[in-house]
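Work Package 3 (structural annotation) set out to generate three-dimensional models for the target panel prioritized at the project kickoff. During this period the team completed the workflow that converts sequence records into discrete structure tokens, so that structures can be stored uniformly alongside our sequence database. As a representative example, we reproduce one entry of 228 residues exactly as it appears in the project archive.
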Amino acid sequence: MHNERTFKTYSVDIETVSQGKRAVDYTNGKYYKPASNIKDPEKIKANIQKQKDAANDKHGLHWTLGKIVSVCFVDVFGDDKDVVLYGFDEIEILTKATEFLCGAKIIGKTSENFDWPFMIGRYMANGLTVPLSLKSRGLMYDVDKIFGWSSASGQRGRLDDYAHGIGFKSKPMQGSQVQKLYDTILLAKMEGDKVAEEAGWKELTDYNLHDGHVVKALCLAYYGKEGM
């Protein structure tokens, strides 16, 4: 039996960060080959460290090294209240997200290459059942497909580009800032600064929801209110 959310269409966006020490230990332990033109031992050491630092900076882009700290669900063709699930407990976030991923259509930006596989990976990594919406290709959509046929001419772009094109307000921050913001939230929690912690989460979730609403605006502009 489907629950009441089945067959809705949600704009979905996730925010991801590094798993922390576990990820750093893994990437630092990998084999790195220095550039062939470098012969000086100190320069070789510096080059390898540079490669490690670059790998560590990208943890949040891979489900094997990152984790989800926020996910939003914006009802595209209806008027359900926005939902954003966030926090330090990824299992709790994913468990609650399953309610919205039990058969609804989901759409995002660059979601086929990032959001959907990342979410699937994190469900698997946490020993949770992968929800139906992430198993059925017929339920997963990506707004890039709207502009996909003209990617060679530059029409397929970043979400910021799409937002600007339809006159949507600028996003409050950039994705590259999420990790730093999360680190400040974690530090505030460790220091017992509840005000700073809540302010940090507010900033992060506002950013998360902003992207969800840009995708919704694109869907309404393209499909109309009658839906997909």
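The helical segments are 21-28, 41-56, 90-97, 115-125, 144-147, 159-165, 178-190, 194-223.
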